[in-house]
Amino acid sequence: MKIHEYQAKDILAKYGVAVPRGEMVTARDEAERVAKALFGSGAKAVVVKAQIHAGGRGKGGGVKVASGVDEAGLAAERMLGMRLVTHQTGPEGRIVSRVLIEEAMPIARELYLGIVLDRAAEKPVFMASAAGGMEIEEVAARDPNAILKQHVEPGLGLQPWQARRLAFGLGLRPEEVSGAVKFMAALYRAYDETDASLAEINPFITTTDGRLLALDAKINFDDNALFRHKELRDLRDISEEDPLEVEASKYGLNYIRLEGNIGCMVNGAGLAMATMDIIQYAGGRPANFLDVGGGASADQVAHAFEILLSDNSVRAIFINIFGGILRVDTLANGVVEAARKTNIQLPIVLRLEGTNVEKGREILQRSGLNFIVGLDMKDAAEKVVAAAERA
Ligand code: GDP
Ligand code: MN
User: What is the pLDDT of residues 234-293, one digit of tens each?
Assistant: First the structure.
């Protein structure tokens, strides 16, 4: 689960990570009220920041510095309701409905700090780089040595010597190092205790008056741990998520939208991954990942089908089921029901095996609908790729 920058900063502040003063608002008059309060208590300038679940806002016009209350209000008014396009949003962009008004900082250096789970090492990795403020993926591709790493032993947490090593590696001045060590310890605790899958501060700044702050903040949570963090679940902003993915989650379906044109319905995550691979191997591109789960009901299958069909880029459908707990006849009933209900015109290629496969094939044949049956997985993949190309 992703959250907004202002929510991430609230969490970090509770753990003792320094962040600029500020408040999230949804209207111009509120923006002016917050800006006025900030100017009234010593701010030299304020920053108006669009709150969307995507980075690269600075380059896309989603971060504006204002030197007066009116200017801040105007910037907020322009930003609210705008469609912000960044390299992370895709061409369709995101509508901005919240902005963060914050005290502007006199930046000396823009650095990078990030923590993610390193699956290969089976422990979190704390990363730091002097090349902050820019895209870290680009830095990693161009010059991997520019990213310093410390793997953290989960039972021990981030050790002070590790934080010192990163701080010195960033070229921080001796008088900044102890502050940076405290900052990193607090950031690690926030990552660890919230069951985050990512905590990223880009940029982590030093100011001309000697402070260290998180100027930007991004936290993603491990969905599988959200059951033990009710207060974090409440931070979810469904309007930022893909509507089809939200719909799928209502029915307990694991659906992820992708960029291709072959809609996939598969049972089991492993088979779903293999299905995407074999489609690509046959020269096609999957439109989605969809695991209907081991024990899907006919109703869930029907919903899954409707979700697949709501994606306008889908040109052909590949149903790849190995009947285990989900029996093939149950699936066939769901597919036929959904195909009738939605009056589907797209070619459907099936590869069915497992429990009650004969019964399932019979249901499909008797339905009078036009299904293409694959002899095996490879044959079915080739048939669906060909069907998508014809369509
Ligand atoms: P992102 O582009 O979505 O990652 O948004 P960021 O919060 O990282 O802001 C992008 C850039 O705006 C930063 O790297 C800074 O250069 C600039 N910026 C943001 N806040 C301030 C501020 O308070 N003062 C100054 N001088 N620049 C800022
Ligand atoms: Mn940033």
Answer: 999 999 988 899 999 888 898 999 999 999 999 889 999 999 999 999 999 999 999 987
- Domain spanning 242-390, CATH architecture: 3-Layer(aba) Sandwich (3.40)
Q: Are 324 and 355 in contact (CB under 8 A)?
A: yes
Residue 355 has φ and ψ, to the nearest 5°, of -55, 130
Catalytic residues: 112, 200
Residue of 19, 57, 63 best suited for mutating to test ligand 1, as the one with most atoms within 8 Å of CB: 63
> Tokens representing 74?
């105007």
Assess if CATH 3.30.1490.20 describes domain 21-104. yes
The protein residue whose alpha carbon is closest to atom 14 in ligand 1 is: 133
Q: 326 CB less than 6 Å from ligand 1?
A: no
Domain edges within the chain: 1-19+107-240, 21-104, 242-390
- Is residue 351 in contact with ligand 1, taking CB distance under 6 Å? no
DSSP 295-363: T--HHHHHHHHHHHHH-TT--EEEEEEEESSS-HHHHHHHHHHHHHHHT--S-EEEEEEETTHHHHHHH
Neighbouring residues of 33: CB distance < 8 A, sequence distance ≥ 6:
25
User: Which ligand does the CA of 43 lie closest to?
Assistant: 1
User: Do 242-390 and 21-104 have the same topology in CATH?
Assistant: no
Contact present, 320 and 290 (Cβ < 8 Å):
no
Residue 326: the pLDDT is: 80
Q: What is the predicted pLDDT for the residue at 268?
A: 87
Distance CA 54, CA 90 (A): 10
* Distance, CA of 385 to CA of 357 (rounded, Å): 24
Are 149 and 127 in contact, with CB atoms under 8 Å apart?
yes
* Placement of tokens 């293999």 in the chain: 274
Mutate which of 44, 129, 215, 219 for ligand 1? The one with the most ligand atoms within 8 Å of its CB, which is: 215
Query: Which parts of the chain have pLDDT scores under 70?
Result: none
Give the class (CATH, top level) of 1-19+107-240: alpha beta
What is the structure's pLDDT at 119? 94
